[in-house]
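Hi, here's the filled form for the chain we discussed.

Project: internal
Contact: R.S.
Residues: 596
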Amino acid sequence: MEAVGIEPYLHVRKASNPIYDPTGKKLTFITDYTGLPQVWELQNETGWPSQASFTEERIIFIKYISGTNQRIFGMDEGVNEKQQLFLLKENGDIVPLTNSPEHIHHYGGNSPDGKWIAWSSNRRHATYFDIYIQNIETLEIRQVFVDDGSYYPVKWSPNGESLLIKKANTNLDNDLGMLQVNTGEVMWLTTHEGEASFDNPQFSGDGKQLYFLTNKDREFTGLASMVLATKEFSWLDESNWDLEELTMSPDKKRLAYTINEGGGSKGVIYHLEDNTKQSWDTPMGVITELTFSPDHSKLAYVFNGPTNPSDIWEVNLESNQTRRLTYVSESPVVQAQLIEPELIKFNSFDGLEVPAFLYKPKNAEGKLPVVVFVHGGPESQIRAVYNPFLQYFLNHGYAVCTPNVRGSTGYGKTYSHLDDVRKRMDSIKDLTSLVEWLKAEGNADPNKIAIMGRSYGGFAVLAAITHYPTIWSAAIDIVGISSFRTFLEKTSPWRRKVREAEYGSIENDGEFFDEIDPIHHVDKITCPLMVLHGANDPRVPIEETEQIVDELKARNHPVTYIRFEDEGHFFVKLKNNITAYTGVAEFLDQYIGKKH
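And the returned structure, exactly as it came back:
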């Protein structure tokens, strides 16, 4: 079968953020069908959807205001992540709510009477997030909680007198508290020792109990409940995998969540009346964004798998039958080419077992060129989802391996900390062990192994080719860190504190940064490098890319650089993704592919 070019893979659209209208007859969602994420609507869950927003910037999320047909949505400018909030009226009019484009706003839901919304913002100080409420009719804004920390409203209490709020201590540690809106007093619910997360909290019908996901005092995230008056804590589901995506039915009788089983998902309905569970069948992939219908008879969700790109599905909770609601990812040209990975495990330099997904092209024979793709985070996980450029590589004869090196989430609390601060380079050593496995077990051509990664994965790329230069034939760094010292000096203030928990601080670990930072080892790079970055990146400043590009150019080393003036940390515009990954494809073809 003739190979398919990169553009058809990038033209595969995705759908997200499904929400039912109050009647349950209309489904609102976000899709990049036009090349930019916008709001669309599907009437009666049949037929072709219609576009409901026509903004010049991406729509980040959309939520209904309870009991109304009005919706709140978020939008930023140039992918700078400084989200502003807007009211989308029933007649299509858009009302700006926050009007502070230099600051970030996190939405926290509406009051039970639909008159107020809650959000947090760093408008007082760039580093800290305070909590505000806003009247959506008068647009009055009230600051209801101020403190030097990162605080976020999660949802209103059923009586409307309190806000459930979250205090983020690190990326992996937080607390929940009840904030009295009128007094500003907080009753903290989850004070704990050590590290623990408390996520996706849901109120019981009477508001006296809270359900949430937590890994308090255990390796994996389970389902727990708490009696608010006494803080009595009970476990409902203690799995040996992380539970995710918890939500509650409108009648307060059922919970829905997913189980992250090695990078794939299993969906679960938990019946609170009799403590029984039901699940439904899906192909290999990941389930996210669970939402019950108003009559609680159905559950909509986003399903994204290697051979089933992101679309919205629905499960009937009586029959347990699923059906696909949107077809925005439909692409006959690409569909027949898509390949599922094999889950493999390899032993690293110290005996640690490391999981990875290995994709091999159809009808593969002999030694193969391989692209090793490293995820960002690093407190993240590569999942079994559709990835356009990985599937393109497969179609063009490359094998692809996506490891979850030490420091990844999804494999327990201990595993996620095996790369912290001074253990940073152990995760890079995992990549060298993976290469040895690929050569011995994965049919890899030892002279055609490339490494690619974005964000923290971009750092991993640069660290790998500077500290272990002889094993790589080509490298692609997307919005990566070239120096932890300069990264921490220049990243957004609200990011610095959070990242220091993972990477260390300049004050305590500056000498270590100087020892490992790729920018200080540019002379060791032997393979050609391609680098891509968005000028509006608030997470990894573009200077991280430009300083290493400048160093390589000064040495006359082969380096290809693509800079996008209208993108940030994520490339969201179709035209830019086509430019980016067409360039990546040509680069790989030149150095490890057909042209090599």
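Let me know if anything looks off before we file it.
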